[in-house]
Amino acid sequence: MDETRLDDAVRAVRMHYFQDMTMEAIAREMGTSRSTVSRLISFARSSGLIEFRLHLPDEHVPNLEQRIHAEFGVTAHVVPVPDTASELDRLDRTAMVAARVLNGLFGSDMVLAIAWGTTIEAVSRHLVPKATHHARIVQLNGAGNTRATGLGYASEILSRFGRNYGAHVEQFPVPAFFDYADTKRALWRERSVRRILDLQHGADVALFGIGADAGDVPSHVYRAGYLDAAALRALREEGVAGDIATVFFRADGSHDGIELNERASGPDLSVLRRVRSRICVVAGEHKLPGLRAALRGGLLSDLVVDDGTAAKLLTG
């Protein structure tokens, strides 16, 4: 949008929201049509010129959000979705809200750590522009596997976040899973890798989904050839309920002693717990076992979840 149109959008927003003028009145004052004013205000919303927040007194916080906070000690953002919605639509609507929650928690002079995957890819398509200064974005886990480097998939997700916030992006060009734990330990001693690990450890905000091998929209790590039959069988035998950034955990939230984690490039979950704001985005009831386990393990501080899944979380 050129400077003249940008000025018009700012002018229309100020008259509509600060002066309580109707769109018809704004159109008359600006010498244009009501539909043009509507488009200007829509542009202002979608481009991040204006931002909406609900400041609810405690007694008016929606019941599901109150109950999730009371039971699990996390801040919940429950997304209304029709019962008839497909799993893909459920994910899309939840991702849209997650993008707005992220804007409220991430800003200038901060580090955002991102775990790539199906859910976070959906969030990346709904980002609302927000200008930041000296902000950085770091990849939490590698994306390479025996079929491909994974760089295209992961880098596109991170690049969207980088462009949206005007932030510097640090990729992590290593495999999602190493063949040998010794290889990982050796590489983790390299200074170039330590730099990325230190950035992850110092993150202010982490954004991730819960990996699950189920549902109509399965997690990328399960559908893109990262795990062979032997690995999947071993995870079942270990009682694994889900993963965050390709690090697996059991139903009780524990992750120690899982062999595949010794070869995973994602962060030790004890490191993740030290991040102040840990935003977990979940859509679909097939994610419930992993979500319950993550909550038991204290792996998240903020939960963005569709209302159907939220209700089942409290009753299951």
Provide the fold topology:
Layout: H1 3-18, H2 23-30, H3 34-46, H4 63-72, E1 75-79, H5 87-105, E2 111-114, H6 118-124, E3 136-139, H7 151-165, E4 168-170, H8 181-187, H9 191-201, E5 205-209, H10 220-223, H11 229-237, E6 240-244, E7 247-250, H12 259-263, H13 269-272, E8 277-282, H14 288-296, E9 302-306, H15 307-315
Helix pairs in contact: 1-3, 2-3, 4-15, 5-6
Unreliable segments (pLDDT under 50, ≥5 consecutive)?
none
Count of DSSP strands: 9
Distance between the termini: 49 Å
Strand order of the largest sheet: 1-9-8-5-2-3-4
Largest sheet, described in full? 7 strands, parallel
Counting helices, strands and paired strands, the structural category is: alpha/beta
In the CATH hierarchy, what is the class of the largest domain? Answer: Alpha Beta
- N-to-C SSE series? HHHHEHEHEHEHHEHHEEHHEHEH
Label the CATH architecture of the largest domain.
3-Layer(aba) Sandwich
Q: Kindly provide the radius of gyration, computed on alpha-carbon positions and rounded to a whole number of angstroms.
A: 21 Å
How many distinct folded domains? 2
Strand fraction: 5-15%
What is the general shape? globular
User: How many helical elements?
Assistant: 15
Q: Estimate percent helicity.
A: 40-55%
